[in-house]
Structures are given as structure tokens and as C-alpha cells.
Amino acid sequence: MNNEKIKRYKISNPSSNRFLKITEDLYWARIPLPFRLDHVNVFAIKSIDGLVLIDTGINNEETKRSWDSILKNLPTKHEISKIIISHHHPDHIGLSKYLSEKLKVDVYTPKKELSRAKKIINLSDDEYGYLLSKSYKEFGFSENIIIKSKNRGNFYKGMIKELPKINDLQENFTIITKEGSWCARFDTGHSPSQLSLFDKERKLYLCFDFLLPRISPNISVGIEDNEFNILEEYYKYLNSISNDYTSDWIVIPGHEFPYYDPVKRAKNLIMHHNSRLNLILSKIKNTELTILDTMEILFDKVNNSHDIFFASCETKAHINYLLSANKIILDKSESVFKYLNNYRN
Questions:
Q1: How far apart, in Å, are the Cα atoms of 267 and each of 211, 217, 235, 243, 254?
Q2: pLDDT, position 339
Q3: From CA 95, how far away is CA 164, in angstroms rounded?
């Protein structure tokens, strides 16, 4: 990490076995992940009511070992008062049951995030496989990939195992500390209603996955509702950043490292998704496309099942946006998408 970018606070890279102090009330650690994105950032806020842990990593032995070490090396004598989950993805919610039982504290997350987590984790392997294979068939994948997806089972549940009792976070949720107030906001895009936290006076924005410094967060449809225009919701979030923040704010994300200027980053992410939409339109003007065709335009060749899932569902999100904007149309007889002006002609 380039420390020159964070001038107000001396921030270096944390380890996976202890919290690093960012401010007097905010601490940061990293938990390893067995994916290409090989870590998730977890946090602790020293509130007046105790230490609030935020996010957990997935449910595996390496994550448990990391947390066991972190908890032995806490930077404060404050008792842990609660666990907060920013959103329902396994790298954030996965170990919540283990930690809540170990620490004997309650867990909280936004209502829509909890609803989605319960909905997906309660699908049987057959039910999950059916929904995934149904989507892949609509996307134009080969029979081999469709069969593999049908037999893959509920891999979401595999990274979590079981959820604890989780309470809803209220809209006016705030964490009060001796140094300031961390206020909540809830946004749709990367997930249905991800929590993020901000301190307006100190210009600190704990954005979790919505405003990552170098990569775009995955903006994907859900397999149980793959017609939802989630990219439009993410655009709304990105456009709101210019109204809510200024260039001198520090952004603290759920992956990678803190940086300055959420407004610039939001504009860059808008440009990124605009370029993808324009690329799809430039290709579809000349030839009809399936989701698979479009995915290979956006992501080249995708081989492993993990990447196929995220790439195809993000591709569908971009197609949904263009459908909603009346730029393209679905030819149901052939299960392909066509440029709308060509279709009219």
C-alpha cells in the first residue's frame, strides 16, 4: 500500500492475526480467502458500549485460526459487545455463528441482507442446482456445464454451514465512540442492502465492498431472480457519492486498502461500466448474442466454476440494464439478444 496516499493516519498493511489501528476507534485486520481475491478486511470499532466486530470471513479452519489469534491479541481491553455483518456474501457472514457462540454476543445485519442469506442457505442442493442450471441453460452454456452446475450443490451454504440468530439493523443505526459517530447507510448494487458506515466530521467512509480501490465489485443478478436490473441500482449509488462526499474523504474498503477521494473512484467505476455497456452494444449491432457470447466478450475465456458463476451473472446484469434502457431486445424464439434498432428495421 502507498502510505503517501493516507496522510492523516499512519496506516500500513495489517496481518491476519491481529488488528491494526487506523484511528483511535477503528481497527483493521485481514482474513485469508481461498479465491483469486485472497483476503477480506474485517474491522473493530471501539464504541462507548464495547468493541463492535464487523464481518467475519468464510467458515473454514483457516478463518477460525485467524480469528482465534486476533481475539488473543485484541488492542483494547474493551469487551466485545456485538457482531455486525455488512452484507450476506459468505466472505462477510460465513463465520458469524462460530464467532457469536464463542464470544456469546448478538449478530446484526440489514434486513434485506438477512432475508437473502436465509433464502439461499435454506435451498437444498437439488433446489440450488436446479436454479443455477436453469440460469445457465438460459445463458447458452454447453450441456456439460449445465449438468455440472446442477450437480454442484449449494456452494453458498458450503462456505457458511449455518447461520446464527441474526437481528435486523435499524435504518437510524449509529455507533457512538469517544472520537465520533459512525452513521449507517444502506445501498443496493453489489448486494440488496449493504451496510456502510461513515463519520461526517472526520470524513471517514467505511464502504465495505461497494467502492473498492482497484477493482469493480461484482454486480450480479441472483439465480433466483435473474431479471432484476441491479446495475441500475449500483449506478444510483455511484451517482449519490458526488452528493454525499468530497475528495478529501478517506475510504476504507472491505478488500484491499484505504485511499482518498470516493468521488473520483465512483466516477471511474461509472466509466468502467459505461465502457462495458458500450462494448456490448458495439458487438450486438453486428451480430446477435447469447449471455455466453457476451460473457466471453467482457471476460474472455472463463474456465473454473467459481469464475463462470460470477462472470455470467454480472454479464446478465449488464444485459438487463440494456434491456431496461430499450437498447436491445430478447428474441425468445432463438434465446438471443439483438440490437433494438436492427430489430425494428
A1: 11, 14, 10, 12, 19
A2: 93
A3: 9
What grid cell was written down for 17?
492475526
Backbone angles phi, psi at 77, to 5 degrees: -85, 0
Residues in the chain: 345
CA end-to-end span of the chain: 53
Residue 276, class by beta-carbon neighbours within 10 Å (0-12 exposed, 13-18 middle, 19+ buried)?
buried
Q: How far is CA 44 from CA 24, 139, 164, 198, 201, in A?
A: 11, 41, 20, 14, 19
The model scores a pTM over 0.90? yes
The pLDDT score that the predictor gives to residue 12 is: 67
What are the pLDDT digits (tens) for 181-227?
Answer: 999 999 999 999 999 999 999 999 999 999 999 999 999 999 999 99
Q: What sign does the dihedral 226-318-194-302 (CA atoms) show?
A: positive
Residues whose CB is less than 8 angstroms from the CB of residue 57 and which lie 6 or more positions away in sequence, other chains included: 31, 32, 33, 40, 42, 63, 66, 67, 91, 92, 94, 95
Which SS3 state, helix, strand or coil, does residue 337 take?
strand
Mean pLDDT, residues 136-165: 96
The tally of domains found in the chain comes to: 1
pLDDT tens track for 41-80: 999 999 999 999 999 999 999 999 999 999 999 988 889 9
304 C-beta neighbours (distance < 10 Å), count: 8
User: Containing domain of residue 261, as a range?
Assistant: 3-344
Which string of DSSP letters, residue by residue, matches 285-298?
TTS-B-HHHHHHHH
Q: Which CATH number do you get for residue 309? A: 3.60.15.10
Beta-strand runs (E) in the chain:
20-23, 26-32, 39-47, 50-54, 80-84, 106-109, 166-168, 174-176, 181-187, 194-199, 204-208, 250-253, 259-260, 328-331, 336-339
